[in-house]
Each structure stands twice: as C-alpha cells, then as structure tokens.
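Structure (tokenized):
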C-alpha cells in the first residue's frame, strides 16, 4: 500500500470524522491506523479504509481493539518510523 497516499487518505478521513489517532507505514508494506472516537465514527472510518484512495488496491482491513493511548487522543496525525 505504500506509495499510493493511503496514510494521507486515512488522515483526511479521520479528520472529517473528528477522530484522533495516527496512520503509519509498517516495514512490511502495510499501514497501521490507530483511531480513537465514537463507535459510529470508527465504523465510518473502517468503511473508508476498506475502499482506500483511488490509487490503492486494498487487500483487507483487520480490526483489533486496543487500549486508549493518551498520546493520541487530541488529533489525528501521520507517524513516521524511527
């Protein structure tokens, strides 16, 4: 998925839905999206992520519940690996 603007697509979708969290590339080519917000907004984000930007070919979206990380509760951002 990298190189097709998926992180920026996720950022714009999350911001429209007023979600907090992040999107980042993983070393194996996948993109990790961590989002915090109301269930209906999270469901809408998932629908967007399954579609992806026009240049992406999304092979699947896996959802996992995670504890709320207080570092990612105010805004949505693009994170970069160190």
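Design, position by position:
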């Amino acid at each position: 998925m990298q190189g097709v603007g998926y992180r920026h697509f996720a950022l714009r979708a999350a911001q429209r839905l007023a979600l907090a969290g992040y999107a980042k590339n993983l070393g194996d080519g996948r993109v990790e999206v961590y989002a915090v917000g109301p269930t209906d907004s999270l469901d809408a984000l998932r629908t967007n992520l399954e579609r992806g930007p026009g240049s992406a070919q999304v092979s699947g979206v896996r959802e996992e519940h995670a504890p709320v990380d207080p570092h990612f509760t105010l805004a949505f951002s693009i994170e970069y690996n160190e």
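Reviewer-requested clarification: Residues 4 and 50 are 14 Å apart (CA to CA). The mean pLDDT is 92.
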